[in-house]
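Quarterly update from the structural biology core.
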Amino acid sequence: MDSVGDEMTFTKTDEKGVRITEITGANLPLNAKENAAGAVALAMLEKHPLDFGIEMTMHKGFSPGSGLGSSAASAAGAAFGVNQLLGNPFSQLELTKFAMIGEETACGSAIADNVSAAIYGGFVLVRSYEPLDIIKIPVPTELRVVAIHPQVEVKTKDSRDVLPKEVPLKSAITQWANLAGLISGLHTENYELISNSLTDIIVEPARKHLIPHFDVVKSEALKAGALGAGISGAGPTIFALCKGETIANDVYASIENAYKNTNIDFNMHRSKINTEGIKILEER
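Predicted structure, tokenized:
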């Protein structure tokens, strides 16, 4: 997403090592070894020793546990920022591998999906972990995303525990076909194909009961013209993909109207797809 993210600063210091001096927007550890961003920076300096240290600050633009990739934003941001101070010795694939260390620090799993999207920008496919293979997928020019983040906690453990341990072959075939259709639709800017392919018959049915009023939000998004809607990450954020600004605005308003009477606080986002990934806001 282009409308929400973390802002991080990286400063060279005479004192060697990694120090996190300030975190705003979330209650996260300042100890570098216990922090997703700090763990990434330490790993990079171990691989590429320096005669200087690095001081970091971060402002969290969205909260941990949102389903929007908060820990990945910190981890990928650290990989990108430290690489800048080092003179850019590492490739995007190598930065993804470093950022995965931050994900493991934050949530116990060295996953690549969120950090690779932050580093590469746009849509990505993690084709393989052994060896790591990241494929960047084109983004149709009119594609927009609307997201609602209900202010409820969905624990990652609970989200994982409800997933089925076995999947019927018929369901797996349907899901694989939808994935193939989505990727083809993104490549060809075929919005009808994207819409027809945005169907999750495996994870969404198992997880949606953890998210208050999920079915209402999805129904209202589709009635307002969304191409499709679903769970972002482990939840509780719900996303809707739309064609064009006008429909995105209609979907935003429809979801907002549906949720404002639920007595649950929420944040909403409306955005183009960020195809660039992490970027430098200011350089001094």
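The two ends are 26 Å apart (CA to CA).
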